[in-house]
Amino acid sequence: MRDFWQARPWRRLIVVHYRLQDGTRITLWSVSQKMFLSAAGGGGSAVTADQSKAQDWETFRLWKMDSSGHMFKIRANKNQFISINDGEQLVATATSHSQAGEFQFIINKKNREKIRIRAPNGKFLQATSYTSRIYSNIKVEQSGSVTANSEASGSWSDKDPSVFKIQVTGQMQGDTQLCSFYGAEQAVSMLQDHWSTFIVEDDFSFISSNGLNAVRIPVAWWITNEANTPSCHPPSYPRYQAV
Hints:
Order of helices and strands: HHEEEEEEEEEEEEHHH
Number of strands: 12
CATH class of the largest domain: Mainly Beta
Protein name: DUF7910 domain-containing protein
CATH architecture of the largest domain: Trefoil
CATH topology of the largest domain: Trefoil (Acidic Fibroblast Growth Factor, subunit A)
GO molecular function, one term: actin filament binding
Helix content: 10-25%
Organism: Setaria viridis (Green bristlegrass)
Largest sheet: 6 strands, antiparallel, barrel
Pfam families: DUF7910
Oligomer: single chain
Shape: elongated
Number of helices: 5
Radius of gyration: 23 Å
Strand order of the largest sheet: 1-4-5-8-9-12
């Protein structure tokens, strides 16, 4: 029996090959500060590197921008998009994807957990310590500032403030991921083509001539794993035509 992914390996390469797919949830850990990046309150303010444990505020979601590279828009826990402000500080304040920055993930080929992130201004993100004044004559060094002002030395040392460790904490699956990545128009067209060719009359002739009396047909992933149909998945999408 023909399978959608086996029959179209190039689509599998685009959607599945990259670990960092559309909708992937990640955490980012500064190797120099030994802290997780966090959007305070889940979004709406600055992104800092000052949390020792990763929970909701330290989890970000990727919006993949293309199929060939590692270009992403990034969302905080409460759906604000990440961008950089006039002071080159990383913030989670954009309420529209049109206001979001596009970030490129540069992955270390020898250790794929380590990445650098190139910001929209062409510079790299870095997490550095800053000095805060507690009393008039006492200064305390604290970790936390994340800015897009590093030229990056090329070193992947754990002392390099532009190096982060990335951990994938969740991903969309199956048809949900397909719809999210390609969008409604293209996903429906692809699925329509798939359903039109997945099982055809010749397949039943083969079954009959070989003494088979049953078939097993896989169903969409979301049917067995999610309560709600993806919004762009047929037949929810109005352009869908039954075959």
